[in-house]
Amino acid sequence: MVYNVFSYRRPNFVSRLPSSNASQCESEYALQGLSESGSGLSNGNISGIPDALSFDRIIEGSTCPPMTCRDFMSYLIYVEHCAENLQFYLWYKDYVQRFEKLPEREKELSPEHKPKFAVEDHEEPLPAHTNATVTREVQRFVNNVFATHGSKTSGLKAPSPAWAPGGDSENTSPLFSPPNSMGHNSYCAITPFAYSGTVSLNDVNHKQVASETFEGVDVKWQPFSIQPFRDEISRIIAIYLAEGAPRELNLSSRDRQAVIKALARTTHPSALKHVKDHIEDLLRFQSHPNFIRWSICNGNKPRVAFAVGLGTFCILGGILSSLIVTLGSVGRGWRAFGAIGWLLGSATLFAAMKGMCVVLHGRHRRHVRPWELWNDDAEMKGSKDSFETSSSTNSYEDEPWVEQYEKRSLISRIFDKEVWIEEPALRQVQDTIAVQSIICAAFFTGVLTAIFMVVPAGNFY
Predict the structure, then answer these.
(1) Ramachandran angles phi, psi of 42, nearest 5°
(2) Beta bridge partners of 28
(3) How large is the C-alpha radius of gyration of the chain?
(4) pLDDT surpasses 90 at 104
(5) 3-state class of 89 per DSSP?
(6) Cα–Cα distances in Å, from 362 out to 206, 303, 344, 421, 431?
(7) What is the signed CA dihedral for 60, 64, 65, 70, rounded to 10 degrees?
(8) Among candidates 35, 17, 49, which has minimal Cα distance to 282?
(9) Tens-place pLDDT, residues 335-393
(10) With b meaning 16 or more CB within 10 Å and e meaning fewer, what string describes 94-110?
(11) Model confidence at 202, in pLDDT bands (50, 70, 90)?
(12) pLDDT tens across 127-170, in order?
């Protein structure tokens, strides 16, 4: 099954969206440009994305490799370099669910946030802490993240999750995704405080960093410590919201100050809603379309470059053979012999321009990503193979696979390891692009054939 081959267009690459403090008119104009950038299937305001590959279905874990939430996270880590957006978004979704399960008496300690208090310079008379002493700057926290385990500060322990793998349906986290692209059968939870290597985000005093952050936005009081999830909010501030944080979100100065002031008054999820909406827009209207576009490519860069070269060679070979026949005195029918090279070459070339290799597509397979190549090697387990082992700053330059992949020869990369594409919707999109390539190749071949057929014979030999 394929989609409409005459109207389908894969999602356009989205370089950027308006900033978090852009006007509503600017945002609507940008989203309108996304929806009008092509025709065919549409997912919300993004054209070219089937409903089966929508952002919500990927986040909910309703897709198969290589389109799972895990694959989306890997794309954000290794390709787009903004995994903190998805990590924060998934944490917020889980946080909202856990907050709603609190008893009413605990909810009353954290009233719903009113946006006007966060934006306006409004001072609420709240009691101050007697020991609110600032002893170090936020930058020292970042330096400690990269320090060794020589001496640990009195950090806070990560909270116990409200769910656990293998439990009943009521306690099962919505943040689990299907197995990863390499066919692992284990489910991995998403946590914003996970780490790997020698340094943990829990080895620092998040409470101290949060206190310094409050001081930095002129909050003269310390928040109520009896509010639910206050310790967890302190960690979120230290990891995602403080300036220079390990996973600092891309927020404007105005929005950063607004959310910090809001969190000083309450731990209600509404205090983070504006940040969540901005991050969701980035994920939904920028990262997600780019992820779909990137996933359509079934070959790595060396393989696609090889396909481009092979297609060009076939086209030039067909033209050369037809020229030789045309300049001679043989019958006109022999001139169409070059159509074989034109058809095969142009189909290969058109598909490669979309990032696809026709040989891989014929078997519905794709190249394994570089960071997936050594997933089965026990010595390479330092790489990010689950959400539970992401490093503090989402960096990957020190992962073992990076050095190993650089040592691989060009031939090894062209004929790299392959894996079956399990997601049916992605296979249908690739089938559509393959049919489009064949149609374009047939038209191109017909034009060239007609030109060579009408040219008079040279009779040079």
Answers:
(1) -140, 140
(2) none
(3) 28
(4) yes
(5) helix
(6) 52, 15, 14, 12, 9
(7) 10
(8) 17
(9) 888 999 999 999 999 999 999 999 999 999 999 999 999 877 655 554 454 453 334 57
(10) bbbebbeeeeeeebeeb
(11) low
(12) 334 333 333 444 554 455 444 444 433 343 444 333 333 334 34
Taking Cα atoms as reference points, which of 284, 423, 354 lies closest to residue 9? 354
Mean pLDDT of the chain: 78
Instruction: Find residue 46's DSSP bridge partners.
Output: 43
Q: Which residue has the tokens 């950027």?
A: 16
Tens digits of per-residue pLDDT, 9-32?
999 999 876 555 444 444 444 445
Answer yes or no: pTM beyond 0.85.
Answer: no
> d(Cα 261, Cα 116) in Å, to the nearest integer?
11
Are 220 and 264 within 8 A, CB to CB? no
CB 8 within 8 A of CB 43: no
Helix ranges (H only) for 149-191 are none
Q: Which two tokens stand for residue 276?
A: 């969540």
Structure tokens at 409: 């020869």
Cα–Cα distance, 356 to 366 (Å, whole number): 9
- Phi and psi at residue 419, to the nearest 5°: -145, 150
User: How many other C-beta atoms are found inside a 10 Å radius of the C-beta of residue 431?
Assistant: 16
User: How do residues 444-458 score in pLDDT, each as one tens digit?
Assistant: 999 999 999 998 887
Cα→Cα distances 46→23, 71, 86, 356, Å: 20, 20, 19, 22
Cα separation, 261 vs 444, whole angstroms: 62
